[in-house]
Amino acid sequence: MNRKGSSSTVSFYVDLIFMMLIILMLIVFVIYGITVHKAKSKEVVDIQSVNLGEIQLINFLRVDDNAHKIENFKNNNSGLDEIKIELEQIFKPSFGRCYNIMIDDKILLTNAYLGEGFYDSIIKLPSKDGIINIKLRVQKFYFDDKLKNNCFSQFENE
Amino acid sequence: MNKKGAVFFMPVLFLIVLGVFGFFLYSDNTHKIKDRYNLLGIGQNEVINTYNEGEKALLYLDESVKLSLNKALINVNGIDIGCSITKGYSFVYSKGKECYLEGDNLNKAFGTALNAELDKFLKQYDDLEIPSNSYDVKIILNKGSIIKGENNKQIEVKKEGINYMIKNNFNVKMNYDFSDFIDNNKKIKELVIKCADNDKCWSDNIDKKWKITKEGKVFMFDINTGKMFKSYDQDNDVELILKMAVDMNNPLGK
Q: Pick from A91, A98, A93, A94: which is nearest to A66 by CA?
């Protein structure tokens, strides 16, 4: 009788331990899945914003000798207004995003909201003094109306 | 219930769950590339990124050409287009052989000068290799001119799982119609027939803007076009002066 009782107690604890292990594994499994999914979703959004900004900037630089105007701006800070007007037309946030465009450390075009999570892209242009880097900063998507309004109103006020 | 079965049920279930979990992790780690492209937008982003890199290289190429055009124009002098050179002058006629700077000869001379300038800029670009110094350049006259360049070697963008090849060509507008080359070569061509090796005839008939230097039967001309061009490496504009020569020894190849 005693041997029977001790055997069923052992069996119970063995079952309990394995059951707990299984539950633990399932919890780890779920947490892992959620984390990976979150990270991947975030990555997609960020990369898309950079891609579109780059394409727009390349198109901007290709027309009307704009690359030359950028070089002038870099060398002697001249011609900013002319470039700004054109850039604003192209980058006016039809995509619902705000941009910061910089040449090295000089801000060419900025906007009101500089939140966290904006990304750098570098476009290279030739010059007599070597390569000019045009640094494009692109912000993330705007998820709430407040930020979106800030961005739009800033463009309209300038 | 069979107690033996009850004892083995949980360990077996544990092993099954462990197996499933292990298999999932194994698949997740060993199919990274495949998984990346299965994620929403990742594959497309890779394609756009690759396209962007190509566009950036083409933009750099276009801008390099624009910077190089005027310098190349000024440097056309002294390029051997098949009739040799002397003291920085290109022979456009030498002992019966014609190399007038028009049509294909003009394309070749200007192309050589442009390739040399372009090469300096393209070598600085380190994101991708832009094959240089071998553009086949053509001048198309059209309200100024359009400079077209074609290169057999393509620009290659290589990424994980993507191999993108782009035509390494450019097509840039130039605000100059090359009339100085065409008109002055036409004039030289006429004088070669009219004057042959008669140096007095040459002196009497050349345009007043030309400066002639004679060495035996070799006549060298400095032709001031009066047109100023901005070269990227000089602060002041530079006048386009054409330097051409004719070798009238054995005139008309007789």
A: A91
